Amino acid sequence: MAAEGSSAQQTALAADREKRLVALSSVLAAVLLTSLKIVVGVTTGSLGILSEAAHSGLDLVAAVVTLWAVRVAGQPADREHTYGHGKYENLSALFETLLLLATCVWIFYEVVQRLFFSQVHVDASPWAFAIMAVSIVVDWSRSRALARVAKKYQSQALEADALHFSTDVWSSAVVIAGLGAVFLSERLGLPWLAKADAVAAAAVAGIVVWVSVRLGKKTIEDLLDAVPSDLPERVAAAARVLGVIDVRKVRLRRSGPEVFADVTLTVGRDTPFEKAHDIASEAEAAIRACVPGADVVVHTEPASSGQEGQLTAIRLLASRHGLGAHAIRLYQNGKRLSVELHLEVDERLMLGEAHDKVTAFERALHEELAGLDRVVSHIEPTGDVSAVRHPAPEDELPVRRALEHLCSESGLSFDPHEVKVQRVAGELAVSFHCAMDAQTSIAAAHQLTELMEKGLRERVPNLGRVTIHVEPPEDRLES
């Protein structure tokens, strides 16, 4: 387990390092492009290039915010942030969206001014074309690198950065088209083509608005813990491993790149604790296979499987009432069912208290078993007090003689051995082993032990608890 934890920690550190490096490279690329676009835009007077410079400037701010968000989101969970710091990536993406929309407002304002109210000379120089070509190459390489790491680690902050750089590629192409139209207007004497630069800027802003709205919608959904509509069904289907009766609840949330799943399963109420734990572990593994890397918590609840027998139902109900049940007998008379059983209660209870507990159990049993007509309970004490036993070797001789007489008088050959006699709370407690043919049915073996117990009680006064262990003759020889 320690090795697995160390490996997971090393993987997390490597992922954090890779995310930081790609975010830092985006900051450097944004610095380069913003500087070049500002210089060329001011020199040429191109609103398209200046809008691109503003876009790249905000990309720089966004890249810095992304780098900060990636660093913070990589911190482990603490007492104040029990689900980790992944939401910082979502906040970073939302901040970038708002910056982009603010930029679009300014660009649209300038477009309206240049198209209808003012004349600005645009110099479609080779430098303008060169800087936009360089911008396309850098933006394309950065968008690919960011998208690759974002997909690898499910990072929304890096995904937002990748979208920014990819839109820069298309917007830069639109600006080049606008500059080309200005160049043609000068060569062909078509003044109206000079307006193409402003139109190109409007197209850039339109692209940015479209991407920003899409990114903003996804970011807000993640902040509100929205998940794909089919994911809960897929997780529930994965959790239905062998032993699961039903999947009662599935809750999912995303925090940055991490997905958290809280799932409640029902298992048979007669399922042993360790088996229920194994079922939960298997369900967790299946969910992680469905949602790789998910942090999964599975809670199991007991439920009737519909396949448990009446004896199991009685024992489970008794256990829920703090009672031990044994020697259960069911009698069916037509459609009417009756039950006789022994119930173990804490011996420190008074009779009235014990009877109240047993009565509550009997009422619940009538509700549990359809058609139950009658319940007869024999109350037995159990606990630490009666477990304090005082050996009395002088009491062993009458018991051994009674067993010998029982063998000779009944004609039974059960070979009593390992006889133990102790005095418990004023009564004799007897236990012994007896050998029987291995092919004897368990019902026949039980009848024989009842005959032995009855014979002992007739011959030994003040006899209390009798425990008889039956075994095949070969086990007798081995012991």
Can you describe what's shown?
By secondary structure, this protein is α/β, with parallel strands linked by helices. It folds into 4 domains: 11-223, Up-down Bundle (Alpha-lytic protease prodomain-like), CATH 1.20.1510.10; 231-303, Cation efflux protein, cytoplasmic domain (Alpha-Beta Plaits, 2-Layer Sandwich); 316-382, Cation efflux protein, cytoplasmic domain (Alpha-Beta Plaits), CATH 3.30.70; 390-478, 2-Layer Sandwich (Alpha-Beta Plaits), CATH 3.30.70. The chain has helices spanning 2-44, 47-73, 87-117, 126-153, 156-188, 196-223, 231-239, 273-290, 310-320, 351-368, 396-410, 442-459, 473-478, and strands spanning 244-255, 258-268, 295-303, 324-333, 336-346, 372-382, 390-391, 417-424, 427-435, 463-471. A 4-stranded mixed beta sheet has the order 7-8-9-10. A 3-stranded mixed beta sheet has the order 1-2-3. A 3-stranded mixed beta sheet has the order 4-5-6, covered by helices on one side. Helix 1 runs antiparallel to helix 2 (47-73), helix 3 packs parallel to helix 5 (156-188) and helix 4 (126-153) runs antiparallel to helix 5. The longest helix has 43 residues, at 2-44. The two termini are 41 Å apart.
